[in-house]
Amino acid sequence: MRPSGRELSDLRPISIETGVTKHAEGSCLIKMGDTHVLCTATIEDRAPSFLKGSGLGWVTAEYGMLPRATNTRNRREAAAGKQGGRTVEIQRLIGRALRAGVDRSALGERQIVVDCDVIQADGGTRCASITGGWVALRLAVNKLLKTGACTSDPLMDHVAAISCGIYAGQPVADLDYAEDSEAGTDGNFIMTGAGKLIEVQMSAEGATFSRDQMNKLLDLAEAGVAQLVAAQKAATA
C-alpha cells in the first residue's frame, strides 16, 4: 500500500491554473498533489550574444524554492550569495527539456526565460516545473503568434515530465516525498506529447534495479506523461 492510498499507476491530483500573474507573457500555477509551482515565461527581444546573427532563438530556465516550501525553513540562496548545486542542475534540466520541443529557427532571434518557483514541495518539483513551464511557454508563444512576431509555431510538441520509482519493491508513478525519501530506485522521465524520450534520470538509491523493473517504470512514465499532456491541453485550450 502506498502512503497516499493510491494505486501503483495513479498520479496525484493535477491542477493547472493559467494567467496567474499580471505582467508575465505566460504564467501558470501547477499543482501535483501537494507540490505547487508557479511558472512564468518572459519574452526578451534579443537572443543571447552567442547566437547573434544566427537567426536562432533560445529558451532557458531558472528554478528556485521558497524558504518554507518544505517542512523546515531553507535559507534563501540570494542571502548565501550563490546558487546551490541542486538548483543549478535542475534549472539546466528544465531548460534542456523545454528546448527539445522548440523549433529555434521559427522562434527567431529572441529568448524566452521560464521561471519556476516552488511554493510548496512534496516531491517531484523538477517534473512539475517542466510540465508547468511548458504551459507558461505555450502561452507566451501564443502572444508572439498573435502579434505576428512569429509566423509559424515554434513549439513542435508538448513536453512533460514525471517521476517514477521502486517503492517497497513495487514500481510506482508520481512519487510524493514520503515515497521518494524511501524509494529503492528513483527516476525522472521527460517526454514529448508523441511519447518520445527527451531525458531519463535514473539511479539506485540503496537497491539495484533490473532491466525488467526499468521497463515497467518506462511504461508507467509513458502513461503518466499522457495524462499530463492531456492536462496541458485542457489548460491551454
From TrEMBL:
Q: Which UniProt keywords apply?
A: Nucleotidyltransferase, RNA-binding, rRNA processing, Transferase, tRNA processing, tRNA-binding
User: Which reactions appear under catalytic activity for this entry?
Assistant: tRNA(n+1) + phosphate = tRNA(n) + a ribonucleoside 5'-diphosphate
Task performed by this protein: Phosphorolytic 3'-5' exoribonuclease that plays an important role in tRNA 3'-end maturation. Removes nucleotide residues following the 3'-CCA terminus of tRNAs; can also add nucleotides to the ends of RNA molecules by using nucleoside diphosphates as substrates, but this may not be physiologically important. Probably plays a role in initiation of 16S rRNA degradation (leading to ribosome degradation) during starvation.
What does the annotation say about its assembly with partners?
Homohexameric ring arranged as a trimer of dimers.
Q: What is this protein called?
A: Ribonuclease PH
Top class in the EC scheme: transferase
Give the GO molecular function terms.
3'-5'-RNA exonuclease activity; tRNA binding; tRNA nucleotidyltransferase activity
Binding, phosphate:
R86, G124, T125, R126
Q: Which gene encodes it?
A: rph
- Please indicate which superkingdom the organism of origin belongs to: Bacteria
EC id: 2.7.7.56
Query: Mind telling me which InterPro entries this protein's record contains?
Result: ExoRNase_PH_dom1 (IPR001247), ExoRNase_PH_dom2 (IPR015847), ExoRNase_PH_dom2_sf (IPR036345), PNPase/RNase_PH_dom_sf (IPR027408), Ribosomal_Su5_D2-typ_SF (IPR020568), RNase_PH (IPR050080), RNase_PH_bac-type (IPR002381), RNase_PH_CS (IPR018336)
| Stretches assigned to the Exoribonuclease phosphorolytic domain | 11-140, 159-223
Q: Does the keyword tRNA processing apply?
A: yes
What GO terms in the biological process aspect are recorded for it? rRNA 3'-end processing; rRNA catabolic process; tRNA processing
Q: Which family does it belong to?
A: Belongs to the RNase PH family.
Answer whether the UniProt record assigns the keyword RNA-binding to this protein.
yes
PANTHER family noted in UniProt = EXOSOME COMPLEX COMPONENT, EXOSOME COMPLEX COMPONENT RRP41
